[in-house]
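Exercise 7b. Backbone tokens:
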């Protein structure tokens, strides 16, 4: 493991309230609780944003994914469906990158 990765891991452990030395491990439960509380809040906020985006787009979901339904027919526009799936994939990638950045930012703060 590189020194940079070791330093990042040490910072994260420190932020979590965990101190590891050669012959002992000390855990500050207050810092640990705060660390995970912050992560929980950030995940909750991001999930609410995603939920809001899904709610807003769900009103026209059938049209967005290229599906039209009536009593006699089902019509599927494969190009529109592919575009919708690609868009969802990009949103998921953005969410994961944002979540990773939040954890890194937390590690840098402390």
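Sequence design result:
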């Amino acid at each position: 493991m590189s020194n940079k990765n070791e330093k990042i891991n040490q910072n994260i452990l420190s932020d979590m309230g965990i101190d590891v030395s050669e012959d002992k491990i000390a855990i500050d439960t207050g810092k640990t609780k705060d660390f995970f509380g912050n992560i929980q809040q950030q995940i909750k906020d991001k999930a609410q944003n995603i939920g809001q985006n899904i709610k807003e787009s769900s009103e026209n979901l059938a049209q967005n994914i290229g599906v039209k339904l009536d009593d006699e027919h089902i019509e599927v526009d494969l190009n529109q469906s592919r575009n919708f799936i690609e868009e969802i994939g990009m949103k998921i990638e953005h969410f994961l990158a944002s979540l990773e950045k939040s954890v890194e930012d937390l590690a840098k703060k402390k």
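Instructor comment: The first helix runs from residue 3 to 15. The helical segments are 3-15, 29-58, 61-64, 78-109.
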